[in-house]
Structure formats: structure tokens, C-alpha cells
Amino acid sequence: VVMKRQMVASIIATAFLSLFPGCMDENEEEKNDSLPDVNFHYLFEVMFQSQRAKIQCFLHYFERLAALSNGVEGEVTFRRVVVNKEELLSADQLAASEQALSAFVVPDEGVIEDAGSRVLQVDFANRYLGGGVLYTGNVQEEIRFSICPELVASMLFMECMDPNEAIIISGFEQYSRYQGYGGSLCYDGDCIDSSERDKQGNILTAICAIDAVPFTDTKGSYITQYEQIHYMRDINKAYAGFLQPYLDPDKVRAIASGNWGCGMFGGDAQLKALLQWISASAASCPALIYYKFDNELVKDLAEVADSIVKAKWTVGKLFQVVVK
């Protein structure tokens, strides 16, 4: 779906005023349970610090639009990527793979949105796109949707993702800065987005929304992430997001990611880093840029990756060692 950014602004304004029908009526027969509620009414119900920060971001977005004499220019593209189930990676296929590993880069500091326009930036998504951005959610996906409000328009029509699906959104702009994370989230003023634009004026920033398997209940599910059914599911989920079949093969982007599924979803950051490296390599991405976010579990990740590269491991070798 390709939308003029002016149309996207109209969707967000309508949602802000909670005017979309059906979403608020739990008895509505036509309510689509595979779609999140895009109306903002729940966002206003509880005024935690992080709630105020998100509302400030959206209000600032409207202030910026109001200051434009000719409206906002350009388009936003929303794309669902589906990998046919028979084309998903298998454990046997990965174990036998002689494919070279993608480059692995670990910046000393920074966040995913710093990666720039020529990089596909990972959204640590909920299977319902946007997660709790319009509720009390206040972590990576919710923050990104708040500082880049045009992403919220996707919640109107992008249904929840299946395990073999990812969602790519491009052409959106960052309007606000932030500080903190989780409950400490604060609005930090205006952001002038310096992203590159094409000849038509479209912003070249793109995100890849992929949802990890959650391991957060109280029944010991954390340990189950080391079972093949779960790590293969996450490898294929990331593979769907990183594959980029719609791009010229000569222009496949590097991936900017981090501790995907390791916060509220309870994932093992060391495991998730290696699974994403396997997926990016299998998808023939030139590089995986991994932001550590001060996570102690991956403090030595750069050294580990460097040792693996120097040893000239293949995708198959890395996968075999992870499995072992």
C-alpha cells in the first residue's frame, strides 16, 4: 500500500480523535480481531510519565504539520513480505550451508534509528503492529511509533503477522527526540530528520517489523527458547524480514538491529544475536549492524563475532555450534 503522506496525516488525525467506527464497540459484529485498535482513546486514560511523553510526540507532529503552507510531501509505503512455507529455512538446510556469513558490525554506541537511510532498521515488533503504542507500552516499538507517528497509520489496515511474515514500512519521517526508556521515557523536543530523499522527495528510511517468540510467562517458558521449534521459528521470522525480495539484488540493504525480543519478551540476547546473524547471512544481506543497548550479556559480542569471522565460519558452521 502506497499512501501520500497527507493521507497518512489524515488517518492519524482521525485516530487521535478516536473517530474510526467499530473499534470501541466490543459487540460490533464487523470488528476485525486481527487488527489492533488504531483509535487513541486508551492512550488518554492513564497519565504515566511515558504516556505524557507519547502524547507530546503526537502533538508535536501535528504542530509541525500545521506550520507547513502546502502540506507534507512524499509517500509512505507499507509492504507485507510473505515467505511461502515450503521456502522457509530448515535445520538440515542450515546445518549443511556453505554460505559465507554476512559482515557483523558492533558500534560502540548509538541506537537503531541512527543507522541511516541505506540500512533496513529493525522494529522489535508485536505480532499486532505498533504493540502498546496507543496503550501503556513504552519500549522499542512503541517509542519508534511515537517519534515517527506516520508509522501508526499501518495499524489501520496491517493485520497481525503470521510466523512466515514481516512488514516493511518506508518513507516516514522522525519528528521528535526522546530520552529514557520504559517508564522513564521523556519527550526531548523537535527532531529535524536528515534522512536521504529520492528524486520524488520520498524519505529513504525503512523499518522491518518482525515479532519474536515471547518467553515471559511464569511457567518456566524461558528455557523453551533453546528448543528447535522456537529458535527455527525466530530464524525464519528474521529471514522473512531480512530477505528483501522486492529490492534490486545489487542494492540489498544492511540490517540494523539489536537485542530483538530480549526485553519484555524474555529472550536470551546472546542467542538472538547469533540467530539474527544466521538469518541475515541466509538472506544474503551484506552486513548486520548490531546495537548492544548496554546489555551486559552481549558486551563481548564484537570480539566473539571477530573470532568467528577470522575462523572463516560458514552459515552451517555457526548454526551447528549454536545448536550444540
Automatic annotation (TrEMBL):
GO MF annotations in UniProt: poly(ADP-ribose) glycohydrolase activity
Keyword Hydrolase belongs to the record: yes
Domain PARG catalytic Macro per the UniProt entry, residue ranges: 93-298
Enzyme Commission code: 3.2.1.143
Origin: domain of life: Eukaryota
Residues that hold substrate according to the record: N126, Q140, Y181
Native organism: Capitella teleta (Polychaete worm)
Keywords: Hydrolase, Signal
UniProt record similarity statement: Belongs to the poly(ADP-ribose) glycohydrolase family.
Pfam family, one: PARG_cat_N
The protein's name: poly(ADP-ribose) glycohydrolase
Gene Ontology biological process terms in this record: ATP generation from poly-ADP-D-ribose; carbohydrate metabolic process; nucleotide-sugar metabolic process; regulation of DNA repair
Signal peptide boundaries: 1-25
GO CC terms in record: cytoplasm; nucleus
Residues of the active site: D123, E141, E142
Residues of the PARG helical domain: 1-80
Enzyme class: hydrolase
